[in-house]
Amino acid sequence: MNHWVIAPVLWPWLAGILLLLGRGSLAWQRGVSIAAVAGQLGLALVLAAEVSGGSILVYTLGNWSAPFGIVLVADRLAAWMLVVTALLAPFALLYALRGDDAAGAHFHILFQLQLFGLNGAFLTGDLFNLFVFFEILLMASYGLLLHGSGRKRTRAGLHFVTINLIGSTLFLFAAGTLYGVLGTLNLADLALKVAAAPPENAPLVRVAGLLLFSVFALKAALLPFYLWLPDAYANASGSVAALFAIMTKVGAYSILRIDTLLFGPNAGLAAELLEPWLLPMAMATLLIGVVGALASLRLRQQVAYLVVASVGSLLIAFGLGSVSGIAAGLYYLPHTTFAAAALFLLADSITRRRSDQADRLDPGPTMASAGVLGGLFFIAAVAVAGLPPLSGFLGKFLTLRAALAHPWWPWLMAIILSGGLISLIALARTGSLLFYRAVPPENPVTPEAPSALARELAPSLGLLLLVAGLTVAAGPLAQGTQAAASQLLQPQYYIQAVLKPGGTP
Hints:
Helix content: over 70%
Number of strands: 2
Shape: globular
Order of helices and strands: HHEEHHHHHHHHHHHHHHHHHH
Largest sheet: 2 strands, antiparallel
Number of domains: 2
Number of helices: 20
Strand order of the largest sheet: 1-2
């Protein structure tokens, strides 16, 4: 039993306990949080190295073997998601240290609990515990969204809570139905039981599977379940919105996991259950996202709609169902996470400098440090729109190449390319309004101290450097995502690692 598997789950949980003990001191909380996210990155990289050769590591809690006990499972996909989360968290936290974290008493505790829920969701090998970790990260996200209060934030939070509670209820219905019919909630065991389900149980299994898909589609903000996201993300603080860039990826991860493990081609009467739904919904999500971005009247709302569009692009790649398609999606996933987070942080910095104009997309007075902010906004816009030479272009190119083998390839080409064009138009208009059409203020703009500006923009710049790193290391990273996709499409190895350690698949 490899103890590295549980370490990414225990680490933020222990950090949260330490933060509770010293919650009266902001300096203590900041120090513990910084150490915790640094340690999490190290743990994620170690675990990624452990599984890079194709090993699937299983941790059985209480030494109760599956399917009777709770298991955590680390494969290439889970490790990839852990690394992406661990790379995002420090930059969101560093931006929060500028003052966002001081707006309430429990920011750092909630931040660590959010990471605890995320890491657990990626590593769990049990459907019910996936529900538990979903609830942990959602409860933390409710608190983070409302952090700092305010009427708009409270209203968006109420909408967010209500819709996600409905999703949680449906999750319980789906899990209860599967347990009642198949007698297990262990994912590996479910894969075997679903494939062997007799014809009289097939309708219930299919209904439960589609309920699960609906829940994960809601978490991913897939059309028509995306309506909670624009207001929630647009009204969160900058650091929280940046961290939330990974939230929709939890839903996308869960869809990919159940599609390849439970409802793949060998799932008997439930085979290819998601195929008629996933790709059309993803294509529609991409279109509604870019149209929403084009029609947005506020900068942060526009970035939120671009997150919706990126979910569509990501799930189009996953919906292709091929090794090359899934690999393209896994390469694109960290790109869109880092680029969206950087844009949220820049949007917050821009909003702070526009006084009464805030983030409304109207021409206003020239803001302080407009040249630096405009340059970073331009780079972030190129990344989000998927233009060369950055990794967004490479991810979309890989997706388009994989789409050529799909019968719908003309539609896929048209939608992906049109989506990129509309995103570019929306961001070009925004950049023009914010920077080129700005009018000189009545009073001269006071220059900002370079050191203060550097501290504020360092997290945004760091995230954009990660995007550049994805571009520079595209070759080995693409090989890694190809290996992860191949492993996913051979679920017998996952099943064997969990249920028959040391046996033959």
